[in-house]
Amino acid sequence: MKLSKGLVFASVGASLVFLSVAQAVKEVLSEEELGYRNAPLYTEEAAPPEVQYPTEPPGTGKKFSRAYENAPPQIPHSVEGLVPIKPGQNACLGCHMPDVAKSVGATPMSPTHYKLDLFTKGGKKDELKIDPARYQCVMCHAPQANAKPLVKNVFKPEFRDPQAKERSTLFNRWKEGLP
Ligand code: HEC
Ligand code: HEC
């Protein structure tokens, strides 16, 4: 008696697995549909949807919260005239260096950017006053954009410290877990 009950469960289980596999198979996209531009993949003319970047000058934009704990914050102001960043020409430093940031109302760059030298041992840190690996700010900090997500984002960040939603805590935590 016991055995046949087990068999019933096993076969119900098996058909459920079969049904969910069949369901998943239905959602497979064709190769042509894989692009992000809502156009067949091999169409060359279709452009991605327009993206609206902030036009507000520094100090007037609305900041997005951090995408996750210690994510690089996005740039809430216009970067017109500030990029490209070249050797000897980095306008970002002019407002975000910790010694000037407060007076212009900008967020001082994180101490991880000038107190650590994780990537470029022996680089010209003293001359730049920052880790050379941080010089090209827009490599990691992208301007905020008014853009509809092309794919729904179901990721939900968790912040161990509520303050980390608006501020980096990495400099105090980066050694966590290291001997
Ligand atoms: C004229 C001064 C100025 C310049 C130049 C400038 N910023 Fe800013 N930045 C600000 C101010 C002020 C804020 C505060 C937020 C705002 O815009 O309301 C800010 C905010 C930011 C933030 C968000 C910080 C946070 O706490 O979320 C980032 C990232 C940033 N800027 C990056 C840059 C980068 C990269 C450049 C160079 C391409 C740059 N900024 C150039 C003044 C400046
Ligand atoms: C290699 C990637 C990278 C580069 C390059 C980089 N940043 Fe960051 N930045 C980050 C990350 C990641 C964080 C958040 C974690 C941390 O503190 O390091 C951050 C944090 C910041 C913050 C917020 C600090 C806070 O207290 O919340 C500011 C402002 C900032 N960066 C400005 C700059 C500027 C200006 C430059 C160029 C001179 C720059 N960053 C270059 C990755 C980068």
From TrEMBL:
GO aspect biological process, one term? anaerobic respiration
Identify the domain of life: Bacteria
Does the record's keyword annotation contain Signal? yes
Q: How is it modified after translation?
A: Binds 2 heme C groups per subunit.
User: What start and end residues bound the annotated signal peptide?
Assistant: 1-24
Q: Record's Pfam families?
A: NapB
Kindly list the residue ranges recorded as spanning the membrane.
none
The answer on whether this UniProt entry bears the keyword Heme reads yes
| Keyword terms of this UniProt record | Electron transport, Heme, Iron, Metal-binding, Periplasm, Signal, Transport
Q: Which residues bind heme c 1?
A: H77, C92, C95, H96
Q: Which residues bind heme c 2?
A: H113, C137, C140, H141
The subcellular localization recorded is:
Periplasm
Q: Which GO terms describe its cellular component?
A: periplasmic space
Q: What is its main location?
A: periplasm
Which molecular-function annotations from GO does this UniProt entry contain? Answer: metal ion binding
- Protein family membership: Belongs to the NapB family.
Q: What is this protein called?
A: Periplasmic nitrate reductase, electron transfer subunit
